[in-house]
Amino acid sequence: MTYPTYESNIPVVMRFMIDLRMTGMCWIQVDKRSCVQPQINASNCQIEYEVSYKSIYCHPPEQEWSRIPPLRIMSFDIECISESNAFPEAEKDPVIQIACVLVKFGQSEPYSRCVFTLNSCSPISGTTVKSFDCERKLLMAFTEFVNLSDPDFVLGYNILNFDFPYLLDRAKSLNLDEFDLLGRLNNFRTRAKDTIFSSKAYGTRESKLVNLDGRIVLDLIQVIQRDYKLRSYSLNAVSSHFLNEQKEDVAHSMIPDLFRGNDDTRKRLALYCLKDAILPLKISDHIMCLYNYIEMARVTGVPFNYLLARGQQVKVISQLYRKAKEDSYFIPALKVEASDEQYEGATVIEPDKGFYNVPIATLDFASLYPSIMMAHNLCYTTLLDPKTISAYNLKESDYTITPSGDYFVKPHIKKGVLPIILEDLISARKRAKAELKKETDSAKKACLDGRQLALKISANSVYGFTGATVGKLPCIQISQSVTAFGRQMIELTKEEVEKRYNVMNGYLHDAKVIYGDTDSVMIKFGSNSLEEVMNLGREASTFVTSKFIKPISLEFEKCYYPYLLINKKRYAGLYWTKCDQYDKMDTKGLETVRRDNCRLVQTLVDKCLRMILIDRDVEGAKEYWIFF
DNA sequence: GGCGTCGAGCAT
DNA sequence: GATCATGCTCGACGCC
Q1: Are residues A27 and A92 in the same domain?
Q2: A304 in Cβ contact with A216 (< 8 Å)
Q3: How far apart are CA A118 and CA A131, in angstroms?
Q4: Which residue is nearest to the C1' sugar atom of C4, using CA?
Q5: Near strand C (CB < 7 A), which residues?
Q6: A222 CB-side CA count, 13 A
Q7: In terms of domains, do A92 and A78 share one?
Q8: Structural domain range at position A17
Q9: Which tens digit of pLDDT belongs to each residue from A44-95?
Q10: How many distinct structural domains can be found in chain A?
């Protein structure tokens, strides 16, 4: 789906297939006057439309979705063999088995398991095994299965770059014309298209785009690569990381032998294939990515498949369009000009390196950048220049001059769109969290948790969007003002804390800010007592918060005790939120959290840190280090 | 061996 | 045709 920018005399005909449960799109504006509410097919909650349209308007759905039957999820995996044990090629090497598993959204147990295999195969309990004497029939059975079971989601591991392209290529070389009718729209065929996705945040990744119109294709490897940093992204490594479960133990070189063996060896292969189809389901169930992604699509108003196929910007601009439409703003279609200009970012306080055997309190600004934008009304729509100020006769009390020297009107003259969006996101997150607390049903809890997460991420990405010089709507005045305020705030926090908590003011020790990065400060209050430091930390956070405009808030989060500060962005410590027991050992930036060295380094550093921080055995750690 | 540059990978 | 930001450390590498 594209976003129309201007009215056009040429009607644009588009065919929509939208599942309302996942995007929250409810209105299609056909022309200036008529706003049709599409007929919702209540049985599956989908709309199919062919319209000439001028613009599309989205808003979150108000309907009660619980009456609608649950979404169906299919996961699948294929096996193929090659002549010479090389990597199989679709032009000559056959597909020998396909495993499909169906599960209803919100349930963890599959309601159907199915294996299609070439040649005969021993039965598998709880699974339908279908044997075929020719590959063409096997492939067509897959298409038939997809259409009959009619899944809303199609999952798998690396299906976009392997399984689907392989199946499609294979069907082509076997001249199977009907194989690629896998979607819900009649005359739309499934194709694998090459795409290159390149982003500063996610890096450049070549991928394929496979369309099953009306169904959502979700390759779990992409989800894991985006959301988790792991040393290996093989299905085996990912399964053992999340589920403590491994793939069936079958070496690739054994596959041809197992296939050419007998019914029982083919059964073994089928079990392997089946497991590879089940594991993605289990992983997605475990990390709850479907809940989280559906909520993200609804919060931002972008179609589900954009979440993996595209970057962060489209989500922000979608929200901006939604709000701008409500408030009757036009958004200019800017020409992007690549500029290498960089603006100044955040402050990192020079660390007072060393080992601290006293509790160190950590105070954090809650959502620093969003709260700055709200507090100072920073927005595209509130940005001023000296000419405008004199033209509108604005008084000094009507606008803010930011530390970077930019001008923005104050909210009593005009409230910005970005601050409103942020307020909506943050209050929606508060509501979601409150509901989450009350909720007892696990599926609804997962949904609410996904929602609050989506709202948090959305709020935090607005700042990055304004600073993206290669973006749709960059505004350096906003982003440099945000970081400038941030720098000023962390400096002020340091000053205020050290000015107040010292011997001269009747405290037992002089407090010192030993480190800080962007939105956090680490304070050594000097006391040995964890409880005392926590109380001082809480008090200091309210004290400093009172110095700033709402909704800026400094919060006491935790204590580190003991604390090993090695360098900027490199430290370790025991993490305490209660006085009786530490929560965990927390390590930042050190070799234990980096993936660019070998395991030995990681375990060695980890072991030494544990000896120093937990066992308090520095000598032992030294010996251990030298021993290696 | 010291110095500068570059890229990876992290912190926020 | 699309791509959120900057700050920082550390190791690899080239050079003399």
Answers
A1: no
A2: yes
A3: 6
A4: A464
A5: A 196-202, 310-314, 336, 342-348, 461, 463-465, 467-472, 479, 483, 566-570
A6: 25
A7: yes
A8: 1-69
A9: 555 544 443 333 333 334 344 444 567 899 999 999 998 777 889 999 999 9
A10: 4
